[in-house]
Write a structure and sequence with these properties.
about 260 residues, eleven-stranded mixed sheet, 6 helices, 15 strands, alpha/beta
Length: about 260
């Protein structure tokens, strides 16, 4: 097990994270919690594969090291901030630079134990994916998709409203898992069309999502392309797209 911190200091200065957090995220094998209230929570946010820009590996002490999700924890912190601003009871769990087993693939990890340590209505995990034509993916693995589908409809409505008001230039294309335990997807294109497609990372075997259902918790999995997490010039701050994505997810969850 690594180190544990329940972080209670200031998180953001405008859209840049506290330098103390920047430094802590560079340390190996840290588990962070952030809480804006006492349990039970409306939502548990999780970012199991956080790595800072330039330090890409997790599982470096295991037999199968892999790439982490650069700055996924910063995007999760942005969503946490917006949920807090809306008065949504939230706990965020971030595993940074995990050294051993994949944090959300084994029930014995400190990350998985922590996300189920206190009662909540929903688990929402934040991950990173490479850039593709569909930069955002929402799924639930093998779990029921009704809450995910409802939230995505609110998310789409919120995007259209922001586009009409000139806050964003265009709709963010995203994929919504169509059936549990399948990679079939409904893709909402940047032109406002609905087309059939497939998920690149539908999280069909994530222990955290599979376990959520046994706890009676709905589960949701977000894969976000780099532009929502970092750029070559933005490494320890929310990107402009990350700010808007965080706001729209929070508003959509508040409506749900």
């Amino acid at each position: 097990m690594g180190s544990y911190i329940n972080y209670t200091d200031t998180i953001f200065y405008e859209n840049r994270i506290n330098q103390e957090l920047v430094n802590l995220f560079r340390e190996k094998d840290y588990l962070f919690t952030f809480k804006n209230s006492k349990p039970p929570y409306t939502i548990i946010l999780g970012a199991p594969h956080q790595v800072p820009y330039g330090l890409n590996t997790i599982g470096y002490d295991s037999i199968s090291p892999r790439k982490g999700d650069t700055s996924s924890g910063i995007l999760a912190l942005g969503i946490y901030r917006e949920l807090d601003n809306l008065g949504v009871s939230t706990k965020l769990v971030i595993k940074s630079r995990a050294s051993g087993l994949d944090p959300n693939k084994y029930f014995s990890t400190d990350y998985t134990k922590e996300i189920f340590a206190e009662q909540a209505q929903m688990l929402f995990e934040v991950h990173g994916k490479s850039s593709t034509k569909v930069p955002l993916e929402f799924s639930a693995g093998q779990n029921d998709l009704s809450r995910v589908s409802k939230l995505c409809l609110f998310f789409y409505e919120e995007m259209r409203e922001k586009q009409n008001r000139g806050i964003i230039d265009s709709i963010f294309s995203f994929g919504l898992q169509e059936k549990p335990d399948k990679d079939d997807a409904i893709v909402f294109t940047s032109r406002g069309e609905l087309i059939s497609g497939s998920m690149s990372l539908p999280a069909l075997k994530s222990t955290s999502l599979l376990s959520a259902e046994s706890y009676g918790i709905s589960a949701m999995h977000l894969e976000a392309a780099p532009e929502f997490r970092f750029t070559s010039n933005i490494k320890n701050s929310l990107t402009s797209k990350g700010v808007q994505l965080s706001k729209m997810i929070a508003v959509s969850r508040k409506k749900d």
